[in-house]
Write a structure and sequence with these properties.
The chain has 3 helices and no strands. The chain is mainly alpha-helical. Helix 1 runs antiparallel to helix 2, helix 1 (about 10-25) packs parallel to helix 3 and helix 2 (about 30-50) packs antiparallel against helix 3 (about 55-85). The longest helix is centred in the last third of the chain and has 31 residues, at about 55-85. It is rod-shaped and about 60 Å long. About 30% of the residues are buried. Keywords: Membrane, Transmembrane, Transmembrane helix. This is DUF4190 domain-containing protein.
């Protein structure tokens, strides 16, 4: 019985973890999300060039990172607007 296992790309797994963290942590999630995007793009490029697994994981990491960045920016804009408009 032979089992064919392909290695999952490490950058894909890390990008998914960072994408999830960017959704959860306020303010720090912005930086973590940017790093997650770069790692996801790197993982997708590596997966295209090699026969590694993890394309779906890298795509999920990319999506989570982008959503995390958007949520963090909305949080920052909302906080700033509360500060500026509550003074009046």
């Amino acid at each position: 019985m032979s089992t064919s296992t392909t290695k999952t790309n490490t950058n894909a797994v890390i990008s998914l973890c960072l994408g999830i963290v960017s959704l959860i942590l306020p303010f720090v999630g912005l930086l973590v999300g940017v790093i997650g995007i770069f790692l996801a793009k790197s993982a997708l490029t590596q997966i295209e060039q090699s026969s590694e697994a993890g394309k779906g994981i890298a795509s999920a990491g990319l999506v989570c990172s982008v959503i995390g960045i958007v949520l963090q920016l909305l949080l920052i804009i909302g906080g700033l607007s509360l500060v500026f408009f509550s003074i009046a």
